[in-house]
Protein backbone atom coordinates (compact mmCIF):
# COMPACT_ATOMS: atom_id res chain seq x y z
CA UNK A 1 0.00 0.00 0.00
CA UNK A 2 1.17 3.49 -0.87
CA UNK A 3 -0.19 6.68 0.72
CA UNK A 4 0.15 10.26 -0.51
CA UNK A 5 -1.23 13.71 0.23
CA UNK A 6 -1.32 17.12 -1.38
CA UNK A 7 -2.93 20.52 -0.77
CA UNK A 8 -3.04 22.92 -3.71
CA UNK A 9 -4.55 26.40 -4.00
CA UNK A 10 -6.15 28.75 -1.52
CA UNK A 11 -9.58 29.94 -0.59
CA UNK A 12 -12.76 28.04 -1.39
CA UNK A 13 -11.41 26.48 -4.61
CA UNK A 14 -8.38 24.82 -3.01
CA UNK A 15 -7.92 21.05 -3.27
CA UNK A 16 -6.86 18.66 -0.53
CA UNK A 17 -6.33 15.07 -1.66
CA UNK A 18 -5.43 11.96 0.33
CA UNK A 19 -4.49 8.97 -1.85
CA UNK A 20 -4.25 5.28 -1.02
CA UNK A 21 -3.17 2.98 -3.81
CA UNK A 22 -2.10 -0.59 -4.16
CA UNK A 23 -3.04 -4.05 -5.32
CA UNK A 24 -6.70 -4.96 -5.65
CA UNK A 25 -5.97 -8.19 -3.77
CA UNK A 26 -4.56 -6.32 -0.76
CA UNK A 27 -5.84 -3.92 1.89
CA UNK A 28 -6.45 -1.09 -0.59
CA UNK A 29 -8.66 -3.39 -2.66
CA UNK A 30 -10.67 -4.32 0.43
CA UNK A 31 -11.01 -0.65 1.44
CA UNK A 32 -11.99 0.18 -2.17
CA UNK A 33 -14.79 -2.40 -2.19
CA UNK A 34 -15.99 -1.35 1.27
CA UNK A 35 -16.02 2.34 0.33
CA UNK A 36 -18.01 1.85 -2.87
CA UNK A 37 -20.52 -0.44 -1.19
CA UNK A 38 -21.05 1.70 1.93
CA UNK A 39 -22.39 5.17 1.08
CA UNK A 40 -23.61 7.30 3.98
CA UNK A 41 -25.73 10.43 4.16
CA UNK A 42 -23.87 13.17 2.29
CA UNK A 43 -21.00 10.84 1.28
CA UNK A 44 -21.53 8.97 -1.97
CA UNK A 45 -18.35 7.19 -3.14
CA UNK A 46 -18.22 6.64 -6.90
CA UNK A 47 -15.93 5.50 -9.69
CA UNK A 48 -13.82 8.21 -11.31
CA UNK A 49 -14.44 8.54 -15.05
CA UNK A 50 -12.74 10.38 -17.90
CA UNK A 51 -16.06 10.51 -19.70
CA UNK A 52 -19.38 8.81 -18.98
CA UNK A 53 -18.75 5.07 -19.33
CA UNK A 54 -14.93 5.46 -19.49
CA UNK A 55 -13.47 4.88 -16.01
CA UNK A 56 -9.83 5.71 -15.35
CA UNK A 57 -7.18 3.04 -14.98
CA UNK A 58 -6.33 2.02 -12.40
CA UNK A 59 -9.89 1.91 -11.07
CA UNK A 60 -10.29 4.89 -8.74
CA UNK A 61 -12.91 5.59 -6.09
CA UNK A 62 -13.72 9.24 -5.37
CA UNK A 63 -14.56 9.75 -1.70
CA UNK A 64 -15.87 13.19 -0.80
CA UNK A 65 -14.46 14.33 2.55
CA UNK A 66 -16.98 17.18 2.83
CA UNK A 67 -20.61 16.12 3.03
CA UNK A 68 -22.57 17.20 -0.03
CA UNK A 69 -24.45 20.46 0.62
CA UNK A 70 -26.62 21.91 -2.08
CA UNK A 71 -26.63 21.93 -5.86
CA UNK A 72 -23.51 24.07 -6.36
CA UNK A 73 -21.37 21.99 -4.00
CA UNK A 74 -22.62 18.75 -5.53
CA UNK A 75 -21.85 20.12 -9.00
CA UNK A 76 -18.33 21.20 -8.00
CA UNK A 77 -17.68 17.79 -6.43
CA UNK A 78 -19.08 15.56 -9.18
CA UNK A 79 -17.96 17.85 -12.00
CA UNK A 80 -14.62 19.67 -11.90
CA UNK A 81 -13.14 17.99 -8.79
CA UNK A 82 -13.86 14.52 -10.14
CA UNK A 83 -12.64 15.48 -13.63
CA UNK A 84 -9.39 16.85 -12.19
CA UNK A 85 -8.81 13.63 -10.27
CA UNK A 86 -9.59 11.60 -13.42
CA UNK A 87 -7.11 13.50 -15.60
CA UNK A 88 -4.40 13.36 -12.93
CA UNK A 89 -4.73 9.64 -12.20
CA UNK A 90 -4.79 8.74 -15.88
CA UNK A 91 -1.72 10.85 -16.63
CA UNK A 92 0.15 9.22 -13.74
CA UNK A 93 -0.35 5.82 -15.40
CA UNK A 94 0.43 7.05 -18.93
CA UNK A 95 3.54 8.98 -17.81
CA UNK A 96 4.95 6.03 -15.84
CA UNK A 97 4.53 7.52 -12.36
CA UNK A 98 2.49 4.38 -11.68
CA UNK A 99 3.95 1.03 -12.75
CA UNK A 100 2.42 -0.83 -15.73
CA UNK A 101 0.81 -3.46 -13.46
CA UNK A 102 -1.22 -0.68 -11.80
CA UNK A 103 -3.42 -0.52 -14.90
CA UNK A 104 -5.44 -3.64 -14.10
CA UNK A 105 -4.06 -4.99 -10.82
CA UNK A 106 -4.20 -1.90 -8.57
CA UNK A 107 -6.91 0.42 -7.39
CA UNK A 108 -6.88 3.93 -5.98
CA UNK A 109 -8.89 5.65 -3.28
CA UNK A 110 -8.94 9.44 -3.65
CA UNK A 111 -10.34 11.14 -0.54
CA UNK A 112 -11.05 14.62 -1.82
CA UNK A 113 -12.02 17.88 -0.11
CA UNK A 114 -14.25 20.30 -1.99
CA UNK A 115 -15.13 23.39 0.02
CA UNK A 116 -18.84 24.09 0.42
CA UNK A 117 -18.19 27.61 -0.94
CA UNK A 118 -16.29 26.51 -4.08
CA UNK A 119 -17.33 28.84 -6.87
CA UNK A 120 -14.87 28.56 -9.77
CA UNK A 121 -15.15 25.29 -11.69
CA UNK A 122 -11.92 25.74 -13.66
CA UNK A 123 -9.94 26.52 -10.51
CA UNK A 124 -11.45 23.50 -8.71
CA UNK A 125 -10.53 21.32 -11.71
CA UNK A 126 -6.95 22.60 -11.98
CA UNK A 127 -6.29 22.41 -8.23
CA UNK A 128 -7.60 18.83 -8.00
CA UNK A 129 -5.67 17.82 -11.10
CA UNK A 130 -2.41 19.19 -9.68
CA UNK A 131 -3.10 17.86 -6.17
CA UNK A 132 -3.76 14.29 -7.31
CA UNK A 133 -0.63 14.22 -9.46
CA UNK A 134 1.50 15.40 -6.54
CA UNK A 135 -0.23 13.03 -4.09
CA UNK A 136 0.38 10.02 -6.35
CA UNK A 137 4.02 11.01 -6.94
CA UNK A 138 4.50 11.47 -3.19
CA UNK A 139 2.94 8.07 -2.53
CA UNK A 140 5.13 6.30 -5.09
CA UNK A 141 8.28 7.97 -3.70
CA UNK A 142 7.32 7.44 -0.02
CA UNK A 143 7.36 11.19 0.53
CA UNK A 144 7.74 13.23 2.57
CA UNK A 145 11.10 12.13 3.93
CA UNK A 146 11.77 11.90 7.66
CA UNK A 147 14.11 14.88 7.22
CA UNK A 148 11.28 16.98 5.80
CA UNK A 149 8.76 16.04 8.51
CA UNK A 150 11.37 16.65 11.21
CA UNK A 151 11.94 20.17 9.86
CA UNK A 152 8.19 20.79 9.51
CA UNK A 153 7.56 19.67 13.09
CA UNK A 154 9.42 22.78 14.26
CA UNK A 155 6.83 25.08 12.61
CA UNK A 156 3.47 23.30 12.52
CA UNK A 157 0.68 25.10 10.62
CA UNK A 158 -1.95 24.54 7.95
CA UNK A 159 -4.12 26.77 5.73
CA UNK A 160 -6.67 27.13 8.55
CA UNK A 161 -4.48 27.63 11.62
CA UNK A 162 -1.00 28.73 12.71
CA UNK A 163 -0.17 28.59 16.45
CA UNK A 164 0.75 31.95 17.94
CA UNK A 165 3.55 30.61 20.16
Task: Walk me through what this model shows.
By secondary structure, the protein is an alpha+beta fold. It has one domain: Ribosomal Protein S5, domain 2. Helix content is 40%, strand content 22%. The chain is built from five helices and seven strands; from the N terminus they run ββαββββααβαα. The chain has helices spanning 27-36, 70-94, 102-105, 121-140, 146-152, and strands at 2-8, 15-23, 46-47, 49-51, 54-55, 59-64, 106-113. A five-stranded mixed β-sheet has the order 1-2-7-6-3, sandwiched between helices. A two-stranded antiparallel ribbon has the order 4-5. α2 crosses α4 (121-140). The longest helix has 25 residues, at 70-94. It is globular and about 50 Å long. The model has no long low-confidence stretch (mean pLDDT 95).
Keywords:
single chain, 165 residues, alpha+beta, Ribosomal Protein S5, domain 2, two-stranded antiparallel sheet, 7 strands
Q: Per CATH, what is the topology?
A: Ribosomal Protein S5, domain 2
* Fraction of residues in β-strands: 15-25%
Largest beta-sheet characterization: 5 strands, mixed
Order of helices and strands: EEHEEEEHHEHH
How much is the average pLDDT?
95
CATH architecture: 2-Layer Sandwich
- How many discrete domains? 1
How does the overall form come out from the CA principal axes? globular
Number of DSSP-assigned strands:
7
What is the H level of CATH, i.e. the homologous superfamily? Formaldehyde-activating enzyme
Low-confidence regions: none
Neighbour order of strands in the largest sheet: 1-2-7-6-3
Helix-strand makeup class: alpha+beta
Q: How many helical elements?
A: 5
Measured as a percent range, the helix fraction is: 40-55%
CATH class: Alpha Beta
Rg, Å, rounded: 16 Å
Give the N-to-C terminal Cα separation: 37 Å
Amino acid sequence: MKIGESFIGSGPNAAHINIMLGERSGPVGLAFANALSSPTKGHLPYMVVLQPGVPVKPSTAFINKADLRGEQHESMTWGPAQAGVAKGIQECLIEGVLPPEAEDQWCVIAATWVNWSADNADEVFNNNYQAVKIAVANAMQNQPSLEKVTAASKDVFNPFYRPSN
